[in-house]
Amino acid sequence: MIEKGVPVALATDCNPGSSFTESMPFVFGLAVLVMGLTVEEALVATTKNSAHAIGLGAECGTLEPGKNADFLLLDGETPAVLAYHAGVSPVKSVFKKGERVA
Q1: How many domains in the chain?
Q2: I want to staple 98 with a disulfide (CB 3.0 to 4.6 A). Which of 2, 3, 69, 92 is the partner?
């Protein structure tokens, strides 16, 4: 789908029955290790494309002027830490609207 230009969105959509996880790092890892997405494709699918999928692309999903600046600071040099360190939380800090909240 990505090769055809279709925007792919990834999320947990955790609910009883059809989704067994609330872990975005797990979903990110599955996308890269099982579904064949590159780390960069998985990053876009879990941020920009997911925001657009729920109608919030003008407010969040990317870091740019005028948007909410909701983001995570990860313990790693690249987003690949999300795919290749299953079961370990790489989150160092959480920012909401540009303010550090955790």
Answers
A1: 1
A2: 69
